[in-house]
Design goal:
By secondary structure, this protein is α/β, with parallel strands linked by helices. It folds into three domains: 84 residues, Nucleic acid-binding proteins (OB fold (Dihydrolipoamide Acetyltransferase, E2P), Beta Barrel), CATH 2.40.50; 162 residues, P-loop containing nucleotide triphosphate hydrolases (Rossmann fold, 3-Layer(aba) Sandwich), CATH 3.40.50; 67 residues. The strands form three sheets. Strands 10-9-8-11-13-12 form a six-stranded mixed sheet, with helices on both faces. It has a five-stranded mixed β-barrel with strand order 1-2-3-5-4. It has a two-stranded antiparallel sheet with strand order 6-7. Strand 8, helix 3 and strand 9 form a beta-alpha-beta unit. It is globular, with a radius of gyration of 22 Å. The chain starts with 10 loop residues before the first helix and ends with a helix.
Length: 342
């Protein structure tokens, strides 16, 4: 038996669910999602589920189908799996460009409060990847927190330098150096994992996400694979996304390692590059491109690699937005065609 508030249920979802409750449906939170199979936590326990044919038919894009963390309206099981009749509107969503589906978005996790952007201090520390992660998290309505793992594998001086480098990216974002293997620094995470709160882990393979999950859970939920000695790349240990309840009451979404965080075309890069945006207001030319203009304060103050990252992400965001606008028009046209042909 589960109390819905323990699973992240709030008055926001309560209000949205009223019409489904009147139809005799039950609320559940998706803990595992594949194309045709789901698992959902409900007040009565953990249930197998599958999508209703109408839900699949009306979904204009993959992102409209249930994802891990979603709240759904279920027909109670009657000798088989429960049937997902509807997906409640999301309070937040962590999504990236779906590498295999043109301009469509891939929902990594839904209804999360905080996203731990996980990177290791020993090999994986990449400011450019963190900038992408910050853009995706802020766009989806969650709060980012950067975790620097494997602090025990570097010297105190290296750990301090890595911490300072990351803190300069976005001073408003909390940064914590931890050792999941030894447990050092994990007490700093307790406030994010309070009962009913949901956190998603996002990072590349080999940074210690599975080790962190096992440590927070108090026992092994995922096998850990470390990194290959040949090239330092991580082994893929988590093979699918899933949501688990932690002993302290919080909920954690573990995700497979991701190498690319493609922008979706909806990001506001102003938060990620607040330093660039603030300085740009003081440039002597109103239309300054911050490239070759004389006296440009942005080029004088911002490191070249960060400035180039800003330009690159701006170009990518504009292109993704154009592709997404075209796809949205196509999806709406298909929906209207289905509606008028009934």
């Amino acid at each position: 038996m589960h109390s819905l508030p323990e699973l992240g249920w709030t008055p926001f979802f309560e209000a949205l669910f009223m019409e489904h409750a009147a139809e005799g449906l039950m609320a559940g939170r998706v803990t595992f999602a594949s194309r045709e199979r789901y698992r959902a936590l409900t007040w009565s326990g953990d249930l197998d589920a599958e999508p209703a044919g109408r839900l699949r038919h009306l979904a204009g894009a993959r992102e409209e189908l249930p994802a891990v963390g979603d709240w759904v309206a279920l027909s109670p099981p009657q000798g088989g799996p429960a049937i997902v009749q509807a997906v409640l509107p999301r309070r937040s969503v962590l999504a990236r460009k779906d590498a295999g589906r043109g301009s469509q978005r891939e929902v990594v996790a839904a209804n999360v409060d905080t996203v731990f952007l996980v990177t290791s201090l020993d090999r994986d520390l990449n400011p450019r990847r963190l900038e992408r992660g910050l853009a995706l998290v802020w766009d989806g309505g969650a709060s980012p927190v950067i975790l620097l793992t494997k602090a025990d594998l570097v010297s105190p001086e290296e750990a301090e330098a890595g911490l300072a480098l990351v803190e300069r990216l976005s001073p408003a974002v909390p940064v914590h150096a931890v050792s999941a293997l030894g447990g050092d620094g994990l007490d700093q995470l307790a406030d994010y994992l309070r009962p009913g709160r949901t956190v998603a882990l996002l990072g590349s393979s080999g940074v210690g996400k599975s080790t962190l999950l096992n440590r927070l859970a108090g026992h092994e939920l995922e096998a850990t694979g470390g990194v290959r000695a040949s090239d330092g790349r991580g082994r893929h240990t988590t093979t699918h996304r899933h949501l688990v309840r932690l002993p302290a009451g919080g909920l954690l979404v573990d995700t497979p390692g991701v190498r690319e965080l493609g922008l979706t075309g909806e990001e506001d890069l102003g938060k990620v590059f607040a330093d660039v945006a603030d300085l740009a207001k003081t440039c002597r030319f109103r239309d300054c491109r911050h490239e070759r203009e004389p006296g440009c304060v942005v080029r004088a103050a911002i490191p070249p690699d960060r400035l180039e990252s800003w330009r690159k992400l701006q170009r990518e965001e504009r292109y993704a937005a154009q592709r997404r606008e075209h796809t949205a028009a196509y999806v709406e046209k298909r929906r209207w065609k289905r509606f008028t042909s009934r």
